[in-house]
Amino acid sequence: MHWSDKIAEKIISRNPNKEEYVCAAGISPSGSVHIGNFRDIATSLFVAKALERKGKKAKLLFSWDEYDRVRKIPVNVAKVRDDMEKYIGVSYADTPNPFDTEEKSYAEYFEKEFEASIEKFGIKMEYRYQAQMNKSGKYKDYVIEALRKRGEIFNILDSFRTQDAQEGEREAYYPVSIYCPECHRDTTKILGLSEDCTRADYICKCGYKGEHDFTKDYNCKLAWKVDWPMRWKYEQVDFEPGGKDHASPGGSYDTSKVIAKKIFDYDAPVFQGYEFIGIKGSTGKMSGSSGLNLTPSTLLSIYQPEVILWLYAKSEPNKAFDFCFDDGILRQYFEFDRQYNSYLDGSADEYIKDIMNSCLMFDEKIRTVPMSHLVQLGSIVDFNPDMLETVFEKIGTPYKYEDFKERLGLAEYWLENCSPENVNKLCPVRNWPVYNELNEQEKAAVKMLYEYLSGNDYTLEDLNKELYEIPKRIYGYDVENLKALQGTFFKDVYKLLLNKEKGPRLYLFLYAIEKDRFLSLLDFSTPITEEETKVLTAPEEVEEEEKPAVEYGEPDEVAPVAEEISIDTFRTIDLRVCRVLKCAEIRKSHSCYKITLFDGIKERVIVSSIKQYYKPEELIGRKIIVVANLQPTRFVGVKSEGMLLAGTNNACGCQVVFVDDIIPEGTRIC
C-alpha cells in the first residue's frame, strides 16, 4: 500500500461521513518558492488523490501566508533594489514589488511566479490569500476569542518551553500583532485591552499611538502557533504536512494541536512531517552569476513534470531524496520510464500503480524515448531534430520528432548548463597530439578501423562485432589481456574523434553519424596540414581562473592545552550540526564565502575565510558543526551568525570538520 493511501485511510477513519475532505498546504511568499517547499504541495496532492481513489471527494487547499511580516531580503531582491531593508516588519502583501513588472506587491510577484509553474504540473488548487482573508474580517471572531483566552494560550505555549516564564510575562502576553497604520510594520506593543477584549491601546516603535477595535479594524494577525490552528478550524482541514522542523517533538505542530483543541475546540488534522530535498551534482551555469534559483520552474528546465512528481511520490515523506544535476538524472529518467511502461502494459505491481496514479496529471501518453540517447546522440548532431530522426532510424529505433520533442529541449538544457563536460563534439581537425602518442600497434588498429568504415555497407551488428575483432587481429586471439587492449582501443577512438576517453556507445555512434562527418578524423595517411597546425596550437579559452595549488609544510608545533573550564561553561557554547544550503562568493573579498545554513530551526548566514581551500560545490549539501550562539558580527559587509569548526595547521591548511549525513540538522554536539 502506498504511503498516501495509509494516510487517507487514517483521515477517513476519523471522520468517515464527511462530504469533502480538505488537504491543505501553505507557503510564505518570502521569495521564489524552493523545491523543498514544493514537497508541502506534493504531499497533500498525493493524499487528496488517494482519498479520491477510495471514492471520496477531496480538495487541495493552498494558503499564501502573505500577511506574514518581511523578515529578511533575499539576495536576488537586494540586487534589484537596495532599499528593501526598510520594509522589514511590513507584511509581504503590503511591501511593493521590487521588480519592474506589473504585479502590485512583493507577495503577488512571487505568488504569480509560483502559480505559473504549478499550472505546468496540471495541479488544481484552491488558493487562499491570507492578507485578503485577514483584512476582510473573516477571522475577527477567532482573533477576539484568542484574546479572551490569551492566558490559556500562554500556559500552553509555556508548557512546551524549556525555560521558566519571567515575572509579568503572562500578563503582558497578547497572541496578536497589530500592523501600524502609520509605518505599516508590526513593531507595535499592546498597552492595554478592554474588558470584553474587543479594543486595545497600543504604541508603535515609530512613535504612533492608537486604539485598535478588533470588531472593525482588521490590520492585525494572530501569532503563528495560534493562527495555524485557527485556520484549521475555519477551513475544516483534515490533513496538512509540514517540514521536519514543525514535526519535531514539542515543535509547531505539537503546540498548535493543543491550541486547536483547547482554544478553538477542533481536533487537529492528520499531520505528516517531511524531510528536506537534496541537490546532487554541480549546477554549472544555473548557479552563481546566472541568478537562477532552485525553484520548480528551474527543475522544469531539465525534468518533465511527471518525473518531478514521481520522485516525490515514490519517496515516503520522511525520507530524503535528491534532484540530480549530474548524470544521476539519466538514471532517474530510466527508472521512471521502466515503471511507467510496466504501468501501461499491466505488469506493474500495486505499489507502482499507486505511484503512477499519484504522479500522472495529464491524459496524454508520455513518450519514453531514452533520455540518455537524446543526450549522447543529440549533442553530436547539435540537437537537430531531422538529423536525430535519421540517427534513430539507422540504429533501429525509429523515433520521430513527435516522440522526443518534449524531452529534446530538456536534454539539451541539462547537457549545456549542468554537464557541459559531457557534450559530445567532434574534433574540428585530426587529433595529431593523441595520434602521435599511440604505439605502432595502436596506430595499426586505428588504420584498420578506418579501412573497414571506408568500405562496403555494414549492419549495426557487423560493426559492433568488428570493433571487438580489430584488437584480436592486431594483438592475437590468445593474448592474455585482451579485454584491456580492447578497452584501450575504444579510448583511442573516442580521443581521436571527441578528444575524450568515453562517449556514446561506440558502435551506435559510428553507425548513426554520417561518415563524412567523422571518417577523415581517423585517416592519418597524409601529413599534418597548416590549417590543422593553427587549430591545434591555438590557445585554449579559459572560462574560469584555476586556483593555484596550495603547498603545505611541516606540522605546526603542538600548543599546550588551554586553561581548564567547567562543564557549565562548556555547556553555554551551542555547537550544533547545520546543513550547508548555499555557498556564494562575496564581492571584493578574496578569501571569504557567504554560507547559508539550516540549523534545525531556521536558515542562518555565516561568513568564513575558506575560499582558498574549498569550492562552493564541495560544501553545498554537506553537514558541518557551527558555534550557533556566537554574537553576530559583520564581515566584509555581511552579517555573520556563527562560526564553523575547522582545523588549521601548516601541514594541511584549513580543513572543515564535516559530520555524517545521518546526523539530523540541529543536533547539539556535546
Straight-line distance between termini: 41 Å
Biggest sheet layout: 6 strands, antiparallel
Task: Tally the beta strands.
Answer: 22
Strand residue percentage = 15-25%
Morphology call: globular
Mean pLDDT: 90
Number of helical elements: 26
Describe the structure.
With 670 residues, the chain is of the alpha+beta class. Helix content is 40%, strand content 15%. It is built from 26 helices and 22 strands. The strands form eight sheets. Strands 13, 14, 15, 16, 19 and 22 form a six-stranded antiparallel beta sheet that branches. β14 (593-598) and β15 form a beta hairpin. α1 (3-14) packs across α2, α2 (35-53) packs across α14 and α20 (460-475) crosses α21.
List the helices and strands and how they pair.
Elements: H1 3-14, E1 21-27, H2 35-53, E2 58-64, H3 75-80, H4 106-121, E3 126-129, H5 130-135, H6 140-148, H7 150-159, E4 176-178, E5 188-193, E6 199-204, E7 209-213, E8 220-222, H8 224-235, E9 239-243, H9 244-247, H10 252-264, E10 270-274, E11 278-280, H11 296-299, H12 305-314, E12 322-324, H13 328-345, H14 350-359, H15 371-378, H16 385-394, H17 401-417, H18 432-436, H19 440-454, H20 460-475, H21 482-498, H22 506-512, H23 515-518, H24 530-537, H25 567-571, E13 575-585, E14 593-598, E15 603-608, H26 616-619, E16 623-627, E17 633-635, E18 638-640, E19 643-644, E20 646-649, E21 653-656, E22 658-659
Parallel strand pairs: 1-2, 2-3, 9-10, 11-12
Antiparallel strand pairs: 4-8, 5-6, 6-7, 13-14, 13-16, 14-15, 16-19, 16-22, 17-18, 20-21
Helix pairs in contact: 1-2, 2-14, 7-10, 8-10, 12-14, 15-17, 19-20, 20-21, 20-22
